[in-house]
């Protein structure tokens, strides 16, 4: 089988290589999946660079999220051969992956592989952050990197809950699209003063910030919180930590907390997990919440896919298919 691996951490276009490898044999509790689609996420890039919360065991494949079809069942036949599935695993940029059967989710009828392969991480993160944020109808949320895949998803989900949405972008041409998805206020932080505009629009500031960027933008977003507000940090696209203003934390009683999907899902009871998956999948199948696809590339053209991923102004996910 073909697989994309790295033997040392570094920039993906420098350390990732394509090689032939034996098709893996599953353990009794595992299913073997022929992978059909994988999307490229920021976490994939950080993992290859050695900057993610999970340290790669070298050599390692890249990618965490994918869709495929079971080609060898587990010993209990929990997931039969031929079942289309969604799954997460460390190293999905391969033609075949073995995954514990209880971690595999059957792909809902009517959902394409290109949508299924991005139906887990970003949609469930958006759902989980909204559920744990304490936001209610009429509140304001500020989303940094509003034009990201996550940003577009959480805008659509928050709008359904009657939450007022502000978000940041770096290009004026992104404003109209995010407004069409439901954003009430879109600020180009390359040209406009974020805190000034937020305060003019909201009066007191926002109730919650969802921050994917960190760095100086994260600090500016923090200053947009109202008294007793909360910032939820779940990404570091800038690769820079947030310089926290201690005075804001003290005198406005602001809280800053992290969010990681793995920890969130582990904290849920089985019934709550099922509700989360059912809600997200229903949104995607009904297209009440839409995901965008920029382009698809065969696995062996991963370098071209990475080049596409790095392009500015990209409006959808780059998918590796096989």
Assembly level: single chain
List the total number of helices. 12
Return residue spans where pLDDT drops below 50 for at least 5 consecutive residues.
Answer: none
Instruction: Tell how many strands the DSSP assignment holds.
Output: 16
InterPro entries: ADH-like_C (IPR013149), ADH-like_N (IPR013154), ER (IPR020843), GroES-like_sf (IPR011032), NAD(P)-bd_dom_sf (IPR036291)
GO molecular function: NADPH binding; oxidoreductase activity, acting on NAD(P)H
Keywords: NADP, Oxidoreductase
Pfam family, one: ADH_zinc_N
Give an overview of the whole structure.
The protein is an alpha/beta fold. The protein folds into 2 domains: 2-119 and 291-321, Medium-chain alcohol dehydrogenases, catalytic domain (Quinone Oxidoreductase, Chain A, domain 1, Alpha-Beta Complex), CATH 3.90.180.10; 134-258, Rossmann fold, CATH 3.40.50. The protein contains 12 helices and 16 strands. It has helices spanning 12-15, 42-48, 113-116, 121-133, 149-160, 175-181, 194-202, 215-222, 246-251, 261-267, 270-286, 302-310; strands at 2-6, 16-20, 30-39, 60-61, 65-72, 84-88, 96-100, 105-106, 140-143, 164-169, 185-188, 206-211, 225-233, 255-258, 293-298, 317-321. Strands 3, 5, 6, 7, 8, 15 and 16 form a 7-stranded mixed β-sheet that branches. A 6-stranded parallel β-sheet has the order 11-10-9-12-13-14, with helices on both faces. Helix 8 links the parallel strand 12 and strand 13. It is globular. The protein starts with a strand and ends with a strand. The model has no long low-confidence stretch (mean pLDDT 96).
């Amino acid at each position: 089988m073909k697989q994309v691996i790295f033997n040392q951490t570094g920039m993906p276009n420098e350390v990732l290589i394509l090689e032939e490898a034996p098709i893996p044999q599953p353990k009794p509790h595992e299913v073997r999946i022929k992978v059909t689609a994988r999307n490229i996420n920021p976490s994939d890039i950080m993992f290859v660079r050695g900057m993610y919360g999970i340290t790669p065991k070298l050599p390692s494949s890249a990618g965490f999220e994918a869709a495929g079809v079971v080609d060898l069942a587990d010993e209990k036949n929990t997931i039969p051969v031929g079942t289309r599935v969604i799954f997460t695993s460390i190293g999905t940029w391969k033609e075949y992956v073995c995954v514990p059967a209880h971690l595999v989710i059957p792909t809902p009828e009517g959902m394409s592989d290109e949508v299924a392969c991005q139906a887990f991480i970003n949609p469930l993160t958006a759902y989980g952050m909204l559920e744990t944020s304490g936001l209610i109808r009429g509140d304001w949320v500020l989303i940094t990197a509003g034009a990201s895949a996550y940003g577009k998803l959480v805008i659509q989900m928050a709008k359904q809950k009657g939450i007022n949405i502000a978000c940041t972008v770096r290009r004026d041409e992104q404003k109209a699209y995010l407004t069409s998805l439901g954003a009430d206020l879109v600020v180009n932080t390359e040209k406009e003063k974020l805190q000034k505009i937020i305060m003019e629009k909201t009066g007191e500031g926002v109730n919650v910030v969802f921050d994917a960027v960190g760095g100086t933008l994260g600090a500016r977003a923090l200053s947009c919180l109202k008294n007793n507000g909360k910032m939820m940090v779940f990404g570091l696209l800038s690769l820079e930590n947030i310089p926290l203003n201690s005075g804001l934390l003290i005198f406005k009683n602001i809280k800053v907390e992290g969010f990681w999907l793995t920890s969130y899902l582990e904290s849920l009871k089985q019934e709550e997990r099922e509700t989360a998956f059912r809600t997200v999948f229903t949104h995607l199948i009904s297209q009440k919440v839409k995901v965008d696809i920029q382009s698809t590339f065969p696995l062996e053209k991963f370098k071209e896919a990475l080049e596409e991923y790095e392009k500015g102004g990209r409006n959808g996910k780059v998918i590796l298919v096989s």
